[in-house]
Amino acid sequence: MRVLIAGAAGFIGSHLCDRLLGEGHEVVAVDNFLTGSPRNLAHLKGHPRFTLIRHDIIEPLDAADPLDVIFHLASPASPKDYLEHPIETLRAGAEGSRNLLELALRKGARFLLASTSECYGDPQEHPQRETYWGHVNPVGLRSCYDESKRYAEALTMAYHRRHGLHTHIARIFNTYGPRMQHDDGRIVPNFIRQALRGEPLTVYGDGSQTRSFCFVDDLVDGLVRLSRSQEHWPVNLGNPEEMTVLEFARRIRALAGSRSDIVFEPLPEDDPQRRRPDISKARAVIGWSPHIGVEEGLTRTIEWFRKELGIPGA
Ligand code: NAD
Ligand code: UDP
Q: Could you tell me the pTM of the whole model?
Protein backbone atom coordinates (compact mmCIF):
# COMPACT_ATOMS: atom_id res chain seq x y z
CA MET A 1 0.00 0.00 0.00
CA ARG A 2 0.97 3.62 -0.45
CA VAL A 3 0.11 5.61 2.68
CA LEU A 4 0.22 9.34 3.38
CA ILE A 5 0.74 10.39 7.01
CA ALA A 6 0.08 14.05 7.80
CA GLY A 7 1.82 14.98 11.06
CA ALA A 8 4.43 12.29 10.47
CA ALA A 9 7.25 14.14 12.22
CA GLY A 10 5.33 14.22 15.48
CA PHE A 11 5.40 11.80 18.36
CA ILE A 12 2.66 9.37 17.24
CA GLY A 13 3.15 9.99 13.50
CA SER A 14 6.79 8.95 13.57
CA HIS A 15 5.92 5.64 15.25
CA LEU A 16 3.17 5.07 12.69
CA CYS A 17 5.77 5.58 9.92
CA ASP A 18 7.99 2.91 11.51
CA ARG A 19 5.12 0.46 11.85
CA LEU A 20 3.91 0.81 8.24
CA LEU A 21 7.40 0.76 6.72
CA GLY A 22 8.11 -2.34 8.82
CA GLU A 23 5.10 -4.02 7.20
CA GLY A 24 6.50 -3.28 3.74
CA HIS A 25 4.30 -0.33 2.75
CA GLU A 26 5.37 2.89 1.07
CA VAL A 27 5.05 5.99 3.27
CA VAL A 28 4.69 9.61 2.21
CA ALA A 29 5.29 11.75 5.30
CA VAL A 30 3.89 15.29 5.39
CA ASP A 31 4.65 17.81 8.13
CA ASN A 32 5.28 21.53 8.61
CA PHE A 33 7.35 20.92 11.78
CA LEU A 34 5.18 23.25 13.87
CA THR A 35 5.35 20.97 16.92
CA GLY A 36 7.16 17.95 15.49
CA SER A 37 10.77 17.58 14.45
CA PRO A 38 12.64 16.08 11.49
CA ARG A 39 14.79 14.41 14.15
CA ASN A 40 11.91 11.99 14.81
CA LEU A 41 12.30 10.76 11.23
CA ALA A 42 16.08 11.08 10.87
CA HIS A 43 16.53 7.29 11.10
CA LEU A 44 14.37 6.90 7.97
CA LYS A 45 16.43 9.18 5.75
CA GLY A 46 17.40 7.31 2.58
CA HIS A 47 14.84 4.55 3.17
CA PRO A 48 13.73 3.43 -0.33
CA ARG A 49 10.02 3.41 0.55
CA PHE A 50 9.97 6.67 2.52
CA THR A 51 9.46 10.26 1.33
CA LEU A 52 9.28 13.35 3.56
CA ILE A 53 7.49 16.45 2.28
CA ARG A 54 7.50 19.75 4.18
CA HIS A 55 3.99 21.10 3.76
CA ASP A 56 1.38 22.94 5.80
CA ILE A 57 -1.91 21.06 5.36
CA ILE A 58 -3.93 24.25 5.58
CA GLU A 59 -2.76 24.68 1.97
CA PRO A 60 -4.19 22.25 -0.61
CA LEU A 61 -1.87 19.40 -1.45
CA ASP A 62 -1.56 17.06 -4.35
CA ALA A 63 0.29 13.84 -4.86
CA ALA A 64 1.11 12.57 -8.34
CA ASP A 65 1.04 8.89 -7.43
CA PRO A 66 -1.86 6.80 -6.13
CA LEU A 67 -2.66 6.66 -2.42
CA ASP A 68 -4.47 3.90 -0.56
CA VAL A 69 -4.78 5.44 2.91
CA ILE A 70 -4.42 8.93 4.42
CA PHE A 71 -3.82 9.33 8.16
CA HIS A 72 -4.58 12.82 9.47
CA LEU A 73 -2.49 13.35 12.60
CA ALA A 74 -1.41 16.91 11.81
CA SER A 75 -2.36 19.15 14.72
CA PRO A 76 -0.70 20.57 17.80
CA ALA A 77 -1.68 18.12 20.53
CA SER A 78 -0.27 19.20 23.88
CA PRO A 79 -2.15 21.91 25.81
CA LYS A 80 1.01 24.06 25.87
CA ASP A 81 1.33 23.80 22.08
CA TYR A 82 -2.29 24.47 21.19
CA LEU A 83 -2.53 27.37 23.63
CA GLU A 84 0.53 28.87 21.90
CA HIS A 85 -0.96 28.17 18.44
CA PRO A 86 -4.76 28.40 18.80
CA ILE A 87 -5.48 29.62 15.28
CA GLU A 88 -3.09 27.14 13.65
CA THR A 89 -4.82 24.41 15.67
CA LEU A 90 -8.30 25.39 14.50
CA ARG A 91 -7.07 25.68 10.90
CA ALA A 92 -5.40 22.24 11.01
CA GLY A 93 -8.75 20.75 12.04
CA ALA A 94 -10.79 22.81 9.59
CA GLU A 95 -8.91 23.63 6.36
CA GLY A 96 -6.35 20.89 7.01
CA SER A 97 -9.01 18.20 7.35
CA ARG A 98 -10.83 19.46 4.29
CA ASN A 99 -7.68 19.42 2.14
CA LEU A 100 -6.86 15.87 3.20
CA LEU A 101 -10.44 14.68 2.72
CA GLU A 102 -10.46 16.20 -0.79
CA LEU A 103 -7.18 14.45 -1.53
CA ALA A 104 -8.66 11.14 -0.29
CA LEU A 105 -11.66 11.70 -2.55
CA ARG A 106 -9.48 12.37 -5.62
CA LYS A 107 -7.32 9.32 -4.92
CA GLY A 108 -10.08 6.97 -3.81
CA ALA A 109 -8.12 6.52 -0.58
CA ARG A 110 -9.36 5.62 2.88
CA PHE A 111 -9.12 8.44 5.43
CA LEU A 112 -8.42 8.19 9.16
CA LEU A 113 -8.82 11.17 11.48
CA ALA A 114 -6.79 11.24 14.69
CA SER A 115 -9.45 12.73 16.95
CA THR A 116 -9.31 12.93 20.70
CA SER A 117 -10.90 12.21 24.06
CA GLU A 118 -11.06 16.01 24.36
CA CYS A 119 -14.24 15.75 22.29
CA TYR A 120 -15.80 14.65 25.58
CA GLY A 121 -14.49 17.81 27.32
CA ASP A 122 -14.78 17.60 31.11
CA PRO A 123 -16.95 14.48 30.92
CA GLN A 124 -20.05 13.92 32.99
CA GLU A 125 -20.23 10.29 31.91
CA HIS A 126 -17.56 7.95 33.23
CA PRO A 127 -15.93 5.98 31.70
CA GLN A 128 -16.51 7.61 28.34
CA ARG A 129 -18.30 5.69 25.60
CA GLU A 130 -18.43 6.80 21.99
CA THR A 131 -22.16 7.52 22.32
CA TYR A 132 -21.48 10.32 24.87
CA TRP A 133 -21.81 13.77 23.25
CA GLY A 134 -19.43 15.50 25.60
CA HIS A 135 -19.29 18.48 27.94
CA VAL A 136 -17.14 21.07 26.20
CA ASN A 137 -16.68 24.77 26.89
CA PRO A 138 -16.92 26.14 23.34
CA VAL A 139 -15.19 29.45 24.16
CA GLY A 140 -12.69 28.42 26.86
CA LEU A 141 -8.92 28.27 26.40
CA ARG A 142 -9.00 24.62 25.35
CA SER A 143 -11.79 25.20 22.83
CA CYS A 144 -9.32 25.80 19.97
CA TYR A 145 -8.36 22.13 20.23
CA ASP A 146 -11.66 20.55 21.30
CA GLU A 147 -13.77 22.34 18.72
CA SER A 148 -11.18 21.86 15.98
CA LYS A 149 -11.42 18.11 16.50
CA ARG A 150 -15.21 18.14 16.87
CA TYR A 151 -15.48 20.05 13.60
CA ALA A 152 -13.01 17.65 11.96
CA GLU A 153 -15.16 14.72 13.08
CA ALA A 154 -18.30 16.38 11.67
CA LEU A 155 -16.52 17.11 8.37
CA THR A 156 -15.24 13.54 8.14
CA MET A 157 -18.77 12.18 8.66
CA ALA A 158 -20.10 14.64 6.06
CA TYR A 159 -17.60 13.38 3.44
CA HIS A 160 -18.54 9.84 4.32
CA ARG A 161 -22.27 10.52 4.00
CA ARG A 162 -22.15 12.87 1.01
CA HIS A 163 -19.42 11.17 -1.05
CA GLY A 164 -19.34 7.62 0.31
CA LEU A 165 -15.70 8.16 1.31
CA HIS A 166 -14.28 5.32 3.38
CA THR A 167 -13.49 7.17 6.63
CA HIS A 168 -12.45 6.33 10.20
CA ILE A 169 -12.39 8.39 13.39
CA ALA A 170 -10.08 7.40 16.26
CA ARG A 171 -10.78 9.13 19.59
CA ILE A 172 -7.33 8.89 21.10
CA PHE A 173 -6.87 9.09 24.87
CA ASN A 174 -3.61 10.19 26.58
CA THR A 175 -0.74 8.43 24.85
CA TYR A 176 2.93 8.47 25.82
CA GLY A 177 6.27 6.98 24.85
CA PRO A 178 9.66 7.73 23.30
CA ARG A 179 9.91 10.77 20.98
CA MET A 180 7.60 13.01 22.96
CA GLN A 181 9.21 16.45 23.04
CA HIS A 182 10.71 16.86 26.52
CA ASP A 183 9.40 20.44 26.73
CA ASP A 184 5.90 20.00 25.26
CA GLY A 185 4.41 20.56 28.71
CA ARG A 186 2.48 17.29 28.87
CA ILE A 187 2.47 15.29 32.07
CA VAL A 188 4.72 12.43 30.94
CA PRO A 189 7.66 14.47 29.57
CA ASN A 190 7.36 16.97 32.44
CA PHE A 191 7.39 14.39 35.26
CA ILE A 192 10.09 12.21 33.68
CA ARG A 193 12.38 15.18 32.95
CA GLN A 194 11.83 16.57 36.42
CA ALA A 195 12.40 13.18 38.09
CA LEU A 196 15.58 12.49 36.11
CA ARG A 197 17.01 15.93 36.84
CA GLY A 198 16.11 15.75 40.53
CA GLU A 199 13.78 18.75 40.17
CA PRO A 200 10.36 18.95 41.88
CA LEU A 201 7.51 17.23 40.05
CA THR A 202 4.86 19.87 39.32
CA VAL A 203 1.40 18.49 40.11
CA TYR A 204 -1.35 20.86 38.97
CA GLY A 205 -4.26 21.32 41.39
CA ASP A 206 -4.39 18.77 44.20
CA GLY A 207 -3.54 15.94 41.78
CA SER A 208 -6.91 14.20 42.27
CA GLN A 209 -7.83 14.54 38.58
CA THR A 210 -7.45 11.28 36.67
CA ARG A 211 -6.09 10.19 33.29
CA SER A 212 -5.60 6.81 31.60
CA PHE A 213 -2.30 6.34 29.81
CA CYS A 214 -1.67 4.26 26.69
CA PHE A 215 1.76 3.29 25.40
CA VAL A 216 2.40 4.47 21.86
CA ASP A 217 3.01 1.01 20.31
CA ASP A 218 -0.44 -0.13 21.46
CA LEU A 219 -2.06 3.03 20.16
CA VAL A 220 -0.39 2.74 16.74
CA ASP A 221 -1.63 -0.84 16.49
CA GLY A 222 -5.16 0.43 17.16
CA LEU A 223 -4.86 3.10 14.45
CA VAL A 224 -3.64 0.57 11.90
CA ARG A 225 -6.42 -1.90 12.73
CA LEU A 226 -9.07 0.80 12.56
CA SER A 227 -7.78 2.00 9.17
CA ARG A 228 -8.36 -1.54 7.81
CA SER A 229 -11.84 -1.96 9.29
CA GLN A 230 -15.33 -1.20 8.02
CA GLU A 231 -16.08 1.09 11.00
CA HIS A 232 -17.00 4.69 10.16
CA TRP A 233 -18.27 5.83 13.53
CA PRO A 234 -15.80 7.09 16.19
CA VAL A 235 -13.85 4.47 18.13
CA ASN A 236 -12.09 5.13 21.45
CA LEU A 237 -8.43 4.10 21.55
CA GLY A 238 -6.75 4.26 24.94
CA ASN A 239 -5.70 2.26 27.94
CA PRO A 240 -8.47 2.06 30.57
CA GLU A 241 -5.90 1.84 33.41
CA GLU A 242 -6.98 5.04 35.21
CA MET A 243 -5.01 6.80 37.92
CA THR A 244 -4.82 10.15 39.65
CA VAL A 245 -2.17 12.62 38.59
CA LEU A 246 -0.64 12.50 42.08
CA GLU A 247 -0.41 8.70 41.96
CA PHE A 248 1.15 8.99 38.50
CA ALA A 249 3.79 11.42 39.83
CA ARG A 250 4.71 8.94 42.57
CA ARG A 251 4.90 6.03 40.07
CA ILE A 252 7.23 7.94 37.75
CA ARG A 253 9.40 9.14 40.62
CA ALA A 254 9.80 5.58 41.89
CA LEU A 255 10.48 4.07 38.44
CA ALA A 256 13.08 6.74 37.71
CA GLY A 257 14.79 6.04 41.07
CA SER A 258 14.40 9.73 41.88
CA ARG A 259 14.23 11.60 45.17
CA SER A 260 12.53 14.67 43.70
CA ASP A 261 9.92 16.50 45.77
CA ILE A 262 6.35 16.85 44.59
CA VAL A 263 5.03 20.43 44.48
CA PHE A 264 1.51 21.69 43.77
CA GLU A 265 0.78 24.39 41.20
CA PRO A 266 -2.51 25.95 39.99
CA LEU A 267 -4.84 23.77 37.93
CA PRO A 268 -5.13 25.01 34.31
CA GLU A 269 -8.51 26.33 33.11
CA ASP A 270 -11.08 23.65 32.15
CA ASP A 271 -8.68 20.80 33.02
CA PRO A 272 -10.88 17.67 32.78
CA GLN A 273 -11.43 16.08 36.20
CA ARG A 274 -11.72 12.46 35.07
CA ARG A 275 -10.87 10.56 31.93
CA ARG A 276 -11.03 6.87 31.13
CA PRO A 277 -12.00 5.22 27.86
CA ASP A 278 -14.60 2.53 27.57
CA ILE A 279 -12.92 0.37 24.92
CA SER A 280 -15.67 -2.24 24.47
CA LYS A 281 -16.24 -1.00 20.95
CA ALA A 282 -12.56 -1.23 19.95
CA ARG A 283 -12.49 -4.78 21.32
CA ALA A 284 -15.62 -5.72 19.38
CA VAL A 285 -15.05 -4.03 16.01
CA ILE A 286 -11.27 -4.15 15.56
CA GLY A 287 -10.28 -6.83 18.07
CA TRP A 288 -8.02 -4.33 19.83
CA SER A 289 -6.98 -3.80 23.43
CA PRO A 290 -3.69 -2.51 24.84
CA HIS A 291 -1.04 -4.98 26.00
CA ILE A 292 1.64 -2.77 27.52
CA GLY A 293 0.97 -1.82 31.13
CA VAL A 294 1.96 1.52 32.58
CA GLU A 295 4.93 0.05 34.49
CA GLU A 296 6.55 -1.39 31.36
CA GLY A 297 5.63 1.55 29.16
CA LEU A 298 6.99 4.09 31.61
CA THR A 299 10.20 2.13 32.13
CA ARG A 300 10.83 2.15 28.37
CA THR A 301 9.97 5.83 28.13
CA ILE A 302 12.18 6.79 31.08
CA GLU A 303 15.13 4.94 29.49
CA TRP A 304 14.58 6.81 26.23
CA PHE A 305 14.43 10.19 28.03
CA ARG A 306 17.56 9.32 30.01
CA LYS A 307 19.51 8.99 26.77
CA GLU A 308 17.77 11.95 25.15
CA LEU A 309 18.61 14.24 28.06
CA GLY A 310 22.11 12.81 28.47
CA ILE A 311 21.51 11.64 32.05
CA PRO A 312 23.61 8.62 33.09
CA GLY A 313 21.80 5.47 34.33
CA ALA A 314 21.05 5.07 38.03
P1 NAD B 1 2.74 16.07 17.95
O2 NAD B 1 2.62 17.53 18.21
O3 NAD B 1 3.95 15.37 18.40
O4 NAD B 1 2.52 15.77 16.40
C5 NAD B 1 1.70 16.54 15.56
C6 NAD B 1 2.45 16.75 14.25
O7 NAD B 1 1.61 17.50 13.35
C8 NAD B 1 3.74 17.57 14.43
O9 NAD B 1 4.80 16.94 13.77
C10 NAD B 1 3.39 18.92 13.78
O11 NAD B 1 4.54 19.58 13.28
C12 NAD B 1 2.40 18.50 12.72
N13 NAD B 1 1.52 19.59 12.28
C14 NAD B 1 0.78 20.41 13.05
N15 NAD B 1 0.10 21.28 12.28
C16 NAD B 1 0.39 20.97 10.99
C17 NAD B 1 0.01 21.49 9.74
N18 NAD B 1 -0.84 22.54 9.64
N19 NAD B 1 0.52 20.96 8.61
C20 NAD B 1 1.38 19.90 8.67
N21 NAD B 1 1.79 19.36 9.84
C22 NAD B 1 1.31 19.89 10.99
O23 NAD B 1 1.43 15.38 18.60
P24 NAD B 1 1.08 13.85 18.82
O25 NAD B 1 0.99 13.62 20.26
O26 NAD B 1 1.96 12.99 17.98
O27 NAD B 1 -0.40 13.81 18.23
C28 NAD B 1 -0.68 13.37 16.91
C29 NAD B 1 -2.18 13.45 16.65
O30 NAD B 1 -2.88 12.63 17.59
C31 NAD B 1 -2.75 14.86 16.81
O32 NAD B 1 -3.70 15.08 15.81
C33 NAD B 1 -3.40 14.83 18.17
O34 NAD B 1 -4.47 15.72 18.26
C35 NAD B 1 -3.86 13.38 18.27
N36 NAD B 1 -3.95 12.96 19.68
C37 NAD B 1 -2.84 12.73 20.42
C38 NAD B 1 -2.95 12.36 21.76
C39 NAD B 1 -1.76 12.07 22.62
O40 NAD B 1 -1.93 11.76 23.81
N41 NAD B 1 -0.54 12.11 22.14
C42 NAD B 1 -4.23 12.24 22.33
C43 NAD B 1 -5.34 12.52 21.54
C44 NAD B 1 -5.21 12.85 20.21
N1 UDP C 1 -0.31 17.95 34.70
C2 UDP C 1 0.34 18.14 35.92
N3 UDP C 1 1.63 18.57 35.88
C4 UDP C 1 2.32 18.80 34.74
C5 UDP C 1 1.65 18.59 33.50
C6 UDP C 1 0.33 18.16 33.52
O7 UDP C 1 -0.24 17.94 36.97
O8 UDP C 1 3.51 19.18 34.81
C9 UDP C 1 -1.71 17.47 34.73
C10 UDP C 1 -2.69 18.31 33.93
O11 UDP C 1 -3.20 19.36 34.73
C12 UDP C 1 -3.76 17.28 33.57
C13 UDP C 1 -2.97 15.98 33.41
O14 UDP C 1 -1.74 16.20 34.10
O15 UDP C 1 -4.67 17.13 34.62
C16 UDP C 1 -2.66 15.62 31.95
O17 UDP C 1 -2.12 16.77 31.33
P18 UDP C 1 -1.54 16.76 29.87
O19 UDP C 1 -1.13 18.16 29.55
O20 UDP C 1 -0.52 15.71 29.70
O21 UDP C 1 -2.77 16.31 28.93
P22 UDP C 1 -4.35 16.57 28.96
O23 UDP C 1 -4.92 15.26 29.35
O24 UDP C 1 -4.70 17.63 29.94
O25 UDP C 1 -4.64 16.96 27.57
A: 0.98
